[in-house]
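Example record

The entry below shows one chain as it appears in the dataset: sequence first, then structure tokens.
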Amino acid sequence: MLALVQRVARAQVSIAGTVAGAIEAGLLVFVCAEPADTEAQAAKLVDKLLKLRIFSDAAGKMNLSVQDVRGGVLIVSQFTLAADTAGGNRPSFSAAAPPELGRALYDAVLRITRERHTPVAAGEFGADMQVELVNDGPVTIPLRVS
């Protein structure tokens, strides 16, 4: 599974002009499943996200997790993380999981995150979404869990 994690001061996702999910300080996580991914990998991704030490401690060092700071987590599906541009200027998305698997694994990431952390907000799988964020740092980290 692929994820792009951004430490944010705030973030929200809207669908057709209506806010579907919003958080204050925490993590905005774009998630993409690949064809061979499983629910075990989804759980491994959630473990990594919740333990990722990218928030500052009292000394200003990135030493705290989103759980430590009780931050929000906004999870958004984004199959374009699997883009392959090696063949030219038009990206290929054949490395992304088919929609049925992608939806199941996105739902698993969302369910597992909600079981282990709060607050958690989300976009909608397959929807045309507008994401607004204030990246804090900026801190942006790509993750791959296999």
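Notes for this example: The mean pLDDT is 97. The longest helix spans residues 99-116.
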